[in-house]
Amino acid sequence: VSIKKGDFELKIKGLVQADVRTYLDDYNPANTSETATTNRNGLYSNDTVTFRRIRPTFEGTFGKLVGFRLTPEFAGNGSGDAASIVDAYIDLKFSPAATLRAGKVKGPVGLERLQSGGAITFIERGFPTELAPNRDLGIQLQGELFSSTVNYTLGYYNGTADGRDVAATDSDNRKEIGARLFLEPFKNDPSFFQGLGFGIGSSFGTKDQGAFNAGSANNFLPRIRTPGQLQVFSYTSAATAATATAAGSTGVYADGDHTRLSPQLYFYRNSFGLLSEYITSEQELSQGFVAVGAGSTPSATTTQKLKNEAWQVAVSYVLTGEDASFRGVTKVNQPFTIGGPGWGAFEVAARYGKLEIDDDSFDPVTEGGVTFARYANPVSQISEAEAWTLGVNWYLTSNLKAVLNYTQVKFEGGGGGTAAAPDDREDEKTVFGRLQLSF
Amino acid sequence: VSIKKGDFELKIKGLVQADVRTYLDDYNPANTSETATTNRNGLYSNDTVTFRRIRPTFEGTFGKLVGFRLTPEFAGNGSGDAASIVDAYIDLKFSPAATLRAGKVKGPVGLERLQSGGAITFIERGFPTELAPNRDLGIQLQGELFSSTVNYTLGYYNGTADGRDVAATDSDNRKEIGARLFLEPFKNDPSFFQGLGFGIGSSFGTKDQGAFNAGSANNFLPRIRTPGQLQVFSYTSAATAATATAAGSTGVYADGDHTRLSPQLYFYRNSFGLLSEYITSEQELSQGFVAVGAGSTPSATTTQKLKNEAWQVAVSYVLTGEDASFRGVTKVNQPFTIGGPGWGAFEVAARYGKLEIDDDSFDPVTEGGVTFARYANPVSQISEAEAWTLGVNWYLTSNLKAVLNYTQVKFEGGGGGTAAAPDDREDEKTVFGRLQLSF
Amino acid sequence: VSIKKGDFELKIKGLVQADVRTYLDDYNPANTSETATTNRNGLYSNDTVTFRRIRPTFEGTFGKLVGFRLTPEFAGNGSGDAASIVDAYIDLKFSPAATLRAGKVKGPVGLERLQSGGAITFIERGFPTELAPNRDLGIQLQGELFSSTVNYTLGYYNGTADGRDVAATDSDNRKEIGARLFLEPFKNDPSFFQGLGFGIGSSFGTKDQGAFNAGSANNFLPRIRTPGQLQVFSYTSAATAATATAAGSTGVYADGDHTRLSPQLYFYRNSFGLLSEYITSEQELSQGFVAVGAGSTPSATTTQKLKNEAWQVAVSYVLTGEDASFRGVTKVNQPFTIGGPGWGAFEVAARYGKLEIDDDSFDPVTEGGVTFARYANPVSQISEAEAWTLGVNWYLTSNLKAVLNYTQVKFEGGGGGTAAAPDDREDEKTVFGRLQLSF
User: Fold this and answer.
1) Would you write out chain A's pLDDT as a tens digit for each of its 439 residues?
2) SS3 for B216?
3) C140, part of any domain
4) From CA C22, how far away is CA A173, in angstroms rounded?
5) I want to staple C355 with a disulfide (CB 3.0 to 4.6 A). Which of B197, B198, B325, C385 is the partner?
6) What's the CATH code of the domain at C17?
7) Cβ separation of C169 and B50 shorter than 8 Å?
8) Burial class of residue C147, CB neighbours in 10 A (0-12, 13-18, 19+)
9) What CA–CA distances, in Å, run from C279 to C109, C113, C125, C235?
10) Residues from chain C contacting residue B47 (CB–CB below 8 Å)
């Protein structure tokens, strides 16, 4: 709804997602307790009812030039239950071709990442989003050119870890540049390819955590999650490595260039939708040693560029004939009504995606006679994951959506065993349900 | 106030409570400092001005079917100062007899618990609320039958500790069922008993914290507070028990069925109000031992069902003739006006309540030659509390209320001494004042 | 914007400040890492883009008598990213000469402190604000007398540390009284001195942290920051003092009277503005010793009254002819327009300020043969700071403001060396930019 006064217009919007999460086959009968957070080779999670997003939005415009958006988050997905801010920016709209936006925004790299949290086809985004920047703080120039067929973003940001939000203030002195070019060449032409869009998103920056505070802050290192929202990969931390070695490890820290590149594509035609993206994230990481025991002579710090990659293909089809789009099914022909004929719109969808961690991450290193994982421990961290998801979306009205997803993820590594021969983590099988209200 | 656009209506409401809390006779002259948080047998608290509730509410409806409510809390009653969410749900109103509600709601057990925080007669709710579930995450079916004379709720929840809000995600894999039936048989009949309502609320579930993470999470164990908001009872934690024993204790953890039952009643007739409820909360708890010193051979874990109970009776009378109700005095005949004759409405109220902890909680146990409290320590935790409160409510207008309460609580145990002969905690005497704005 | 319903009016306002902070000459080439938070004698800080304030405001009135204001903060300036409440109060407006305000309000001492965060001339307030109370919880009577030429405030508060917000509940049992008298004798008389205002703000209270919990809570001790938002002074904490001494220190704690006094003045004439204030904060502090090693016999606790002071003078001039005021430039003659002649309003400003810590803070004390700083360590804490700032404000429209500030701060002490001959902390040179939206 909107409130106007003179040339000022304030819009109040909202997005609420209440989720039910069920993890199948995740109980290990050998374990007498059912509440272990880690057993069965790392796979266990409590079934739960939870809020995924509770986001009122305040959007406003002052005449043609100035606009803003404020979106707090009350679902407390981060640590604890506390509210925080997700989107907050000020716009200076010089022309449709050039808007200057300052504040907290989504980094311009991942395609599904840039899709609104209320419009995504599945309950959780896929693997490519885990390698793309999430919200970052910065200033960006964006706009549409050539009758809206070309869309560009060019920005300067604090720089954030893969798949994560930026901290309230920058954790290093270095910055990141992000850019995205997206084309919809047939947008204004009612042909078969009218709903085709493709482009490339990228970021380049330097991240420098510094050796001596490497253990304390890992704001720049990713902690990769599955679509079931369980963390399956992180780099070695200082505490982990220091145990049982004569010389302790500083843990892994960001120490140099970080480059992301993501070719991306979508195609919508009537009820059919296709979304696909590929992403690589290449980052220079260092790991050093510190003397622990008497007489220990730590080796030199090593720096390496590691490259993780992910891709996905998702298709969807609206059974009841409504149009599919990057914004979801926005218009429902026959909304659900009590005692009436309407049942809303139904959509089916399927997705396949893959994540590959750089193999060099798992190279062992020997220090003071003890061998351990230099960048990541193959016993506890996965090296590869493949996920497929089947979903049904029921749009009762254009404001209310019910979603049901089945997802299965197959892993390599991370399931115990030895560093030389790690076991695979058990398959993750989840049934997630969602009731979503948006206005 | 409400904003409409088409069949969407958004309502903005608010509740602000600024409290002044004074604790009488709580200074121990033998202690040279006046800021001890524990002295005089556990009783000491700083006098303070504080916010109890700062709750804007966004409520909306989309046509007849869909509704929602979002209430953040900015008073930061939890740890720290941070905002959180108290109510957040989506409604599907199939008919007055059947509404499906999903999200964060009050568990359907305690009568005073279900009364709105702005409508309660006294500044703080009584002992029964400390044994009832507070907000829980889940899905419930609710409705009114037989011309609104029968009100029912049936729900499926994550399950929460007595007197506490649920965590953002479930802390175990087990769930809880809650149900409430409330009758107002003479509601539509203008007789003496028109304002009579009675019913029963109940919950049944299993809670399973697991032995090996018992010490870390006590999300399922109550920490019971007085009307003066001081904690007077909690179960033994791992850290407490482990000191000075050859075999340490895992601390107490939830480990089995948890059943609550609460018969309840209210009666409003003109200016007179009566509210009474009784509640029992029965929960299976376990406590085990872990080897600490060399050669210690821990005994087996013991599990026991412990039953706590509480009840209260509260009466109120509006001196200025307005009607009393479960929603408070909602209409003030002569609002307070500057230079005018109106002085608002005045209400007097009194309450008596009692809390009893299961005596078996305090059974001692001997392990490795050391005797200590198995479930709760009678030296520091009370076993019984009796409270009476006198109150005056001044409704200046229907939006502004000033409240003054005197409460005195008498305890058994928890005041030092020895486990065999614990001293009683000193009486708690409090004068609380409140200025409340609601709209 | 405002929404009305009957005699209830709700206003929604907002303030967003996105800042870019650059620290010049803060890199020490001798240090191989660029992310040190302390090097170059204490001076180092990461350049960053950050939000300074994200504050929606809900303000309402019910008829003539009752009003309220709620302002949450979403910028997460405190620890972490969490939302909190900044302003929250209920007003009872008996007459223009007497309004009773209860809740969380700014303490009535500092002049620039009382200026709205969206109206201040520079990006950060000056040194006097670091010695004045920030938001406090309490009840105050305020009003305007003699045709608004006299403005008074008299309040009773929990009491807060210099430059800081109060905690959610009081940390001691003692309270604070605050009062302010401000005169604008020529306000209603269009003479040269029409825009002259002067007065005095003051607070008096007792703060009592208690010796035995002195180390845990320092809610009552200031941590003084520069205009560059770096902390340059704090009193000795328990942990610091205990190292390397046979008898440890309890750390410094508030232990007695705390008095603030601040004469203040402003003068606005057409485009010219002048704001000046002086403040002293005098507080009784204690520091004691606790036995650490065997045979250590701690000396007695010492208590001392320490007096810190600060002052500043700021001048500003609007180049484009608009009127300056305590509320900033509120009306822009020719707002910035795309393709139009308007460029907005431009203002230049300069400020000089000084902070002096009581010299007695740095007196050494010898305990168990070890000499250390009793109240503050001159090696790490500054004893004096002088700051000058040059600023440009560009009011594009009356809602949108861009600010650029250069600030240089010169310190005494706090830059390493020895307690007998401490080095000076390096000059702080900052370029801060801000984009501010307010409505």
Assistant:
1) 888 888 899 999 999 999 999 988 775 444 444 444 444 445 567 888 889 999 999 999 998 899 999 998 888 654 455 678 889 999 999 999 999 999 999 999 999 999 999 999 999 999 999 999 999 999 999 999 999 999 999 999 999 889 988 877 777 778 899 999 999 999 998 899 999 999 999 999 988 776 544 444 556 788 899 999 988 999 887 655 445 455 666 778 888 899 999 999 999 999 999 999 999 999 998 887 766 555 556 677 788 999 999 999 999 999 999 999 999 999 999 999 888 888 999 999 999 999 999 999 998 877 766 676 788 989 889 999 999 999 999 999 989 999 999 999 999 998 888 888 888 888 999 999 999 999 9
2) coil
3) yes
4) 9
5) C385
6) 2.40.160.10
7) yes
8) exposed
9) 9, 12, 14, 19
10) 170, 173, 175
Beta pairing, strands A2-5 & C400-417: unpaired
Q: Which helix (H) or strand (E) holds B289?
A: strand B272-291
Minimal C-alpha gap between A401 and chain B (Å): 11
- Domain membership of residue A347 as a residue range: 16-52+207-438
* Token pair belonging to B315: 């009466």
Is A211 within 8 Å of chain C by CB? yes
Q: What is the distance between the alpha carbons of residues C118 and C328, in angstroms, rounded to a whole number?
A: 8
Q: How far is A53 from chain C (nearest CA, A)?
A: 16
Which residue of chain B has the CA closest to A85?
Answer: B83
Residue C396 in contact with partner chain A when CB distance is under 8 A: yes
Cα angle C200-C109-C307, degrees, rounded to a multiple of 5: 90
Closest by alpha carbon to C310, among C118, C138, C420, C163?
Answer: C163
Structural domain contains residue A11: no
Q: Which amino acid is at A288?
A: G
Token reading at B234 = 């909690």
B43-47, Cβ contacts within 8 angstroms, sequence gap of 24 or more: B43/B230, B43/B415, B43/B425, B43/B426, B43/B427, B43/B428, B45/B21, B45/B228, B45/B230, B46/C169, B46/C170, B46/C171, B46/C172, B46/C173, B47/B20, B47/B21, B47/B22, B47/B23, B47/C170, B47/C173, B47/C175
Distances in Å between the Cα of B357 and the Cα atoms of A387, B283, B308 are 51, 12, 5
Selected residue of B35, B70, B77, B84 to mutate for chain C interface (largest C Cβ count, 10 A)? B35
Task: For residue C42, give the DSSP letter.
Answer: T
Query: Do C83 and A84 make contact, defined as CB atoms within 8 angstroms?
Result: yes
For residue C3, tell me if it sits in a domain.
no
Structure tokens at C382: 């500054």
Question: Does A138 reach chain C within 8 Å, measured CB to CB?
Answer: yes
Region for A257 from its dihedrals, namely left if φ exceeds 0, alpha if ψ lies in -120 to 50, beta otherwise: beta
Q: Which of C35, C37, C51 sits opposite A88 (nearest CB)?
A: C51
Hey, is the C-beta of B79 within 8 angstroms of any chain C C-beta?
Answer: no
Q: Tell me how crowded residue B232 is: count the other CB atoms within 10 A of its CB.
A: 26
The C-alpha angle with vertex A265 and arms to A263 and A267, in degrees rounded to 5, equals 175
Is A423 inside any structural domain? Answer: yes
Could you give the ipTM of this predicted complex?
0.85
Tell me if A195 sits within 8 A of A149, measured CB to CB.
no
Tally of domains in chain A: 1
Nearest-by-CA chain A residue for B81? A82
Identity at B52, one-letter amino acid code = R
The DSSP code sequence of C326-354 is TT-----SS---TTSS---EEEEEEEEEE
